[in-house]
Design goal:
The chain has five helices and six strands; from the N terminus they run βαβαβαβαββα. It is an alpha/beta fold. A hairpin with a 2-residue loop joins strand 5 and strand 6. The protein is globular.
């Protein structure tokens, strides 16, 4: 089944921040961060901030707090650190800060992932929600996971969710 959501009345460009959470990636090797920026641009949205930070909960929270103060940023997309390995702490850092969660995002992401990778999808702690009137999406760091999340979930609803937050 391939459901297409209702069309938004008019297209708007959403200003996004992209954060790669990784202890090893550099701007040159960050294929997932580059993919997010490319897909956002293709869809008519902008990346107004991009960074790579280590998988340290306090640094993730500081980064989110700083971006929460920036009025021009409407959505923040993080990739990496969503598994269960000891260094995977993105979920733990975010869940403490989110003012509202979108449980359906993680559920749908795992369901779509299951169709591609099978039962290993259960290890993903992808999450979405709202923090300081900004949409927050956190997805695994693999390029395939990033493409899946952006193409099937985030981009189809980014304008709609942004409008809901600002209404």
């Amino acid at each position: 089944m391939n459901f297409i959501p209702h069309r938004d009345q008019e297209a708007i460009a959403v200003n996004c921040a992209v954060i790669t959470v990784s202890d090893t990636r550099t701007p040159e090797t960050d294929r997932s961060g580059q993919t997010i920026q490319h897909l956002l641009q293709q869809a008519g949205h902008g990346t107004v901030y991009y960074t790579i930070i280590p998988d340290e909960p306090q640094q993730i929270q500081i980064q989110l707090s700083q971006l929460g103060d920036r009025a021009e940023i409407e959505a923040i997309i993080l990739n990496g650190g969503t598994g269960i390995a000891p260094r995977d702490t993105t979920y733990d850092a975010l869940v403490q800060l989110l003012e509202k969660t979108l449980p359906g995002f993680g559920e749908l992401f795992r369901w779509l992932s299951y169709q591609e990778i099978g039962s290993r999808a259960m290890a993903s702690r992808a999450i979405a929600g709202v923090y300081r009137q900004k949409l927050i999406f956190s997805v695994p760091g693999s390029t395939n996971a990033v493409k899946l999340a952006l193409e099937k979930l985030i981009l189809p609803e980014l304008v709609h969710l942004t409008r809901q937050l600002n209404s």
